[in-house]
């Protein structure tokens, strides 16, 4: 294990710029998400269910459009893909903060359809700018940065919505996100290496395989576990009489994930995807046994250690098994898998908590993640066992000896 790899990555200009762009764009993006919820509940006077419906509309739009936007990056390039999206987003979020709830719904859906694929762009830039042997570390560094923005963004959003009119707070956060997209367009970072640009874009039939589908399933299962944990934390602390602790307990869980990202990236050999998913699920199960807030927080930190590494491993694996000219599209499918896992995990955890208490939220979603991990491990073992052994060739002269003889 060596953390010096991060110094080498940060010494590469394109990689450093990509990470900074990620920080600048994702922080107002997370802030905007929480401001939108508070805007619906406070300024518009609707229920949390209505706010949840709005989030669902935006989430569905993201899941539907992510592969399409990724394919555009592969086929048309960054600038021709991003420019129309920036125009649409600027128009949508110039109008959305000032309208009523029922008009806000379709506007949020359109905004979700045209979100600039910054996650995919940042990761592709990192992949293209570092050596293959440093790819895992670079993606882990991106996961670490993402965890930081996830911890900071919502806090900034709550403060903005508290001290400003939510309409102006929402407008400001979304416009900052658009400005970040403009900066991406101006810089126009390289998404694939020069030696890969000569190849033509390939259709999905050339790269879709059982392995790719299995990794996408693992991606979805990981966010089922994470969403269940998110809701379980809220339910557990409310049940224990500590609702005021929800924010900092979530932050400690995120800190565990950030630490896990740095450790995983510094490892000399990456851990296979399904083993990481199994570790994430197995580490989440004991959280259901926490007798008080202290043990809940400690166990969540341990479970968090496997969050970012699991997501990073799925991205890393997919980037290595698909052609470079299809990387944007497969990153889009990866984003859709994560989104669909969250969409599935929320109602599953909710029903489990309603029927079995907060403990059931952790147990049920972790069990689903563990089931997918075990199925993937069994399938991998069978695939390796099915590969026929090739008999060793008869000993012969070394190739160099043959050339000398010639």
Automatic annotation (TrEMBL):
Its main location: membrane. Residues 174-406 form the Major facilitator superfamily (MFS) profile domain. Pfam families: MFS_1. It is found in: Cell membrane. GO terms for molecular function: transmembrane transporter activity. Coiled coil: none annotated. The chain crosses the membrane at residues 20-41, 47-66, 78-96, 102-122, 143-162, 168-187, 207-226, 246-266, 273-289, 295-318, 330-353, 359-379. The keyword Transmembrane helix applies. Keywords: Membrane, Transmembrane, Transmembrane helix. This is MFS transporter.
